[in-house]
Design brief:
alpha+beta, outer membrane lipoprotein receptor (LolB), chain A, two-stranded antiparallel ribbon, 8 helices, about 15% helix
Length: about 450
């Protein structure tokens, strides 16, 4: 019989002690980012029982197996509560794949390269905004790869959602009733553009004259005809105490109007369970939420590597589960050795329908891998469940400059109290000839001005 030097109880004790002490930086056997800096892998930071699902479950589950209602109790402690309920009660299944060891496959190459290059240069100014020496905005990558506080975790996420300087996502959305029937289908485009912390677009790291802006972000709809032309534009100040400016073109009014920017807990379109506040689990400025605290940490099963369907010409995904077999995307998950769970409360939203949210961060990359929000009674309410991928599968690949494209592949936004589901998938193209784009400077003029909203509405 082989005895492990560091068994599961050792890891659990370590994680419990870390929560009690308020420590945030990852790693069990050594500081996580010291291990990553050695060879781009996290393995040396974790004992053997945190290297794979097979080791963690002592062989009862492993890569290649499927998690379903019959065996989900074996991994209940590796799932956020709503995902567990989806598997146990609603027929969701998860395919287990091997744990990704190469950190460079878990985010855009340039973003991670900048994270390593700029490590240790970030700090908070007197207002709590992330700056470098001289008080200038952040210069690129994650400012706090070895975070010391939960605010540092959320600050890095809020500064760069998609981890590219510019992104245009072509999206298909499906909104399902509790019966499992699809009630609404939409095609939309979502654009993000960073005027600061740029690592690919020139000039770097700032777009001159726009250093006071954090991001430009828009969403517009091209189908069905009843909503075609509807669009919204968010312009985020760099100061994380301020709300974004929110403009919209509503087809029924045929004009641009400015919307109240703090109404971020309402769906933009009929049928959807997705709110602006949900975006990337950090859809609001950093300090409109507060009381950030680490509530737990430990391993998790999450979809961080296999969410690109290379076999479909438009990258569309298959579904299963629920009353009609349409409720859930087919999803591959892998064993994440350490997730840090941070809880926050909506301080500047007096009418918010949520009392708090919990976000699970992959300690290796600080990527948000799950979110659950709770209603005013403290009951589980809604989940935001993203799945990611490096767009490379065998000989097939989608390139982002010199490296394969990394991004999200699909999302579940689920209301456990009503049973309604919104499914999103990133596709290659939507109607109107809008193709996905990454780090293309033309994204700004095409999608991120009021003139662009008017032009899109007329097309």
């Amino acid at each position: 019989m082989r005895l492990l030097r560091y068994d599961r109880q050792y890891s659990r004790r370590h994680f419990l002690q870390a929560v009690r002490s308020g420590a945030v930086a990852g790693g069990v056997l050594m500081p996580l980012w010291d291990a990553i800096a050695q060879n781009g892998e996290a393995a040396k930071a974790y004992p053997e029982e945190l290297q794979s699902l097979e080791a963690y479950t002592r062989g009862r589950l492993k890569a290649g197996d499927e998690i379903d209602a019959g065996n989900v109790e074996l991994v209940k402690d590796l799932l956020e509560p709503i995902k567990y309920q989806q598997i146990a009660r609603l027929g969701r299944r998860l395919k287990v794949v091997p744990t990704t060891q190469d950190i460079m496959r878990l985010s855009p190459w340039e973003y991670l390269e900048a994270t390593v290059r700029n490590r240790g240069l970030a700090r908070f100014d007197a207002q709590g905004n992330v700056v470098v020496e001289g008080g200038k905005p952040w210069i690129g990558g994650n400012p706090f790869p070895a975070p010391q506080t939960p605010v540092e975790l959320f600050a890095g996420l809020t500064l760069s959602w998609g981890r590219h300087d510019a992104s245009f996502y072509a999206i298909r959305e499906y909104d399902l009733a509790a019966s499992g029937e699809i009630e609404y289908e939409y095609e939309s485009g979502w654009a993000e553009f960073s005027p600061v912390a740029r690592v690919t677009l020139t000039p770097k790291p700032y777009w001159p004259g726009r250093e006071d802006k954090l991001r430009y972000q828009s969403v517009f709809f091209v189908s069905p005809d009843s909503i075609k032309g509807t669009s919204f534009l968010n312009i985020w100040p760099y100061d994380q105490h301020q709300f974004p400016e929110l403009y919209g073109y509503v087809a029924a009014f045929k004009r641009i109007r400015q919307f109240p920017t703090n109404q971020r807990f309402e769906p933009l379109i009929p049928g959807s369970t997705l709110y602006l506040s949900d975006a990337w689990a950090a859809g609001d400025p950093l300090y409109t939420w507060g009381n950030y605290r680490v509530v737990s940490r430990g391993p998790l099963l999450a979809s961080v590597s296999g969410a690109w369907n290379a076999g479909h010409p438009n990258w569309q995904h298959n579904t299963h589960g629920g009353p009609k077999g349409k409720t859930f995307w087919d999803t591959q998950v892998e064993f994440v050795p350490e997730a840090i769970v941070v809880e926050a409360e909506p301080l500047k939203f007096p009418r918010a329908p949520v009392s708090r949210k919990r976000v699970w961060f992959d300690a290796r990359t600080q990527l948000p891998i799950a979110m659950v929000s709770y209603d005013r009674r403290g009951e589980p309410y809604r989940s935001f469940d993203g799945a990611y991928a490096l767009y490379e599968s065998g000989a097939r690949r989608v390139m982002d400059g010199q490296h394969p494209y990394w991004s999200w592949g699909h999302v579940h936004a689920f209301d456990i109290q009503t049973g309604r589901m919104t499914r999103l998938e990133q596709v290659r193209r939507i109607s109107g000839g809008h193709d996905f784009k990454v780090n293309d400077p033309g994204i700004f003029d095409c999608y991120l001005t009021n003139a662009a909203l008017m032009r899109l509405a007329a097309s």
